Structure formats: C-alpha cells, structure tokens
Amino acid sequence: VVRPTIVIGFGGYPSIPALTAATILRIPRMVHEQNGVLGRVNQLFAPVMNAVACGTWPTEMSDKITGHHVGNPVRAAIAERVGAGYIPPGDYPMSILVLGGSQGARILSDVVPPAIAGLPMAMLSHIRVSHQARPEDQERVEAYYAEQNIPADVRPFFDDIPTRMSEAQLVISRAGASTVADISAIGRPSLLVPLAISIRDEQSANAMGLVTAGAAELIREVDFQVDDLTTRLEAILNDPARARQMASSALKTSVPDATQRLMDLIQTVIKKDS
User: Fold this and answer.
1) Tens digits of per-residue pLDDT, 74-102?
2) Are 142 and 109 in contact, with CB atoms under 8 Å apart?
3) Strands ordered across the beta sheet of 152-155
4) pTM > 0.85: yes or no
5) What is the fold, at CATH topology level, of the domain defined by 7-72+255-273?
C-alpha cells in the first residue's frame, strides 16, 4: 500500500472518504475552498486539517480556523491573458460579454437583452454582444437581439471565453468563484448578479472583493430589473475614465501566482510533518 505524502480536498462529498482516511491515519492533509464561504464538507473537516487554503479573500469561517489566502488558480488560457490591455468604451465597436454560469441563467436572458436595447441609439450602434444562454433560451434570445438589430453571438457554451473576456469593455455575469477569478486576472469592469438560491450565498461573498475595490457593481436578483440595468450600463459605457479605473481595480484584486502560492502551502504542510 502506497502512503500518500499529502491529501488535499477541494470540497464536495467525493472528498469525504480521502479526508477521513487521512485524518485517521494522520497523513498530512489540507483543504482548498474556492468560494468566499466554507462549503459544508470543508467546514466539517477544517478543524482537523493541517491547513485551510482560501481562494477568495476574506473567506467566512470559524474564528478558531486560520485560513491562508492563496487565491484561485486560473486555467492556462486565462493566465496567458493576465492584465490584457483594456480598451475603454468609446465611439467605436464595443463588446459586452454575458455569462450565466456553467448552465446559463434564465434571468440574465430575460433582463439583459431588453436592457441593452434600451441604451441610447448613438451608443447602441457600437455594441456587439456575446451572450451565454441555456439551450432552451437560445432561440428566443437570438431572435430578440436580431429584432433590435443588435449584433449578438448567443450560445449555450463558449469555448473561447478568455478571448471574449479580454476583448470585452464590460462583463455581466454570475459570481462563481472561477468566473470572478477570471475577471480579476484579465481585469475587466463587471456587473455581477449572484445566484439567489444558494443556501450560503457564497456568490455574494465571491463578488465582494471586486465590489469593495470599485471594480464591479453587485446587483441582487430581486433588484435585477431592465430599467435599472440600462441605467447602470449607460453610466459605465458613457464614462471611459470610470471603466478604465474599474478594469485597473479588478486587476489589483487578482492573485496571478495562485498556483505557486498553493504549491508553497502544500510544501509547508509536508515539511512540518517530516
């Protein structure tokens, strides 16, 4: 039987057996929490871990637990675009990227298209949209944009999000941990709509770093209305200096060396046991 050097859990029920065994056998062990609130499994095991790594900072947890801010590692395609030059909005083609999370978000498909259509024509004539929508919503969203003469690419999934995000003047999105990490790494202004049905409201916690830095605005689902969104969009797209500052602030919240930080913490835990 090979005894592992360390056992690391990244949340979720599948990590329970490995973390339980590591605890019983006194194998070096740690967890990494992506979100701004400890998940149930990580919360359960945190008191008996050698380290708790946090992707979002601050992360809500018991005062008895010490968290280590390492950040959320981003995939290679995002890392290649860290700090990609930002072109602020102006009298030229502008791109808005709409992301609804891993399965799209119906509320974004209901509210965003008419909100964009409500922008002044002088501004609207420069806008193109990349909109992630559920498969069952794709046809109606495409039809609406077409009726409003708004150039739009509507798909259930984009395999080139890093490129689209780096080209965007503004991102409208859910606030999943990985998406927030991507927005921070590339450095883009954003309007974030946290998932309302989440028991721990972790998406609101995920968004707070960007919001506090002045890089994003948080909109609760209950307040996510067409007219209000149009007002917010116009305010940002009509103010290049503000948009540029939001992009710069987003970049300052990123942790570009998150992978190295996590590796360093792993090595620290291993060395303490040796």
Assistant:
1) 999 999 999 999 999 999 999 999 999 76
2) no
3) 152-155, 127-132, 94-99, 170-173, 190-192, 216-218
4) yes
5) Rossmann fold (3.40.50)
